[in-house]
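haha ok so turns out i had the wrong file open the whole time. this is the CORRECT one, sorry everyone. sequence first:
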Amino acid sequence: MNKKGFTLTELMIVLVVISGLMYLLIPNASKSKASLQGETCDAYIMLVNSQIESYYLENGEYPEDLQELIEQKFIKYDHCPNGSQLVIDPLNHTAIIKNEEDEE
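then structure:
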């Protein structure tokens, strides 16, 4: 008699193949997410910089901090989507990521 179905050996081989693929793919997915968050932050910084220039064109002066841009609805947040805090560089009047060392 030939019964239809899979043997235990066949099922084990399938599980080993699937486990191997997961082992290879999961680390790459997390690396891609970190890279994507960095690119998203770069894009947001470019947006904030353009809004700083828009503020300058409307008011004739650069904003003191990002809170002014938020209050006047030029931007919504003073941080990147990945949580990095942004500040305005007083020399260049551009948005930069705040260093933790600046607080000390």
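The chain is about 55% helix and 10% strand.
again sry for the mixup
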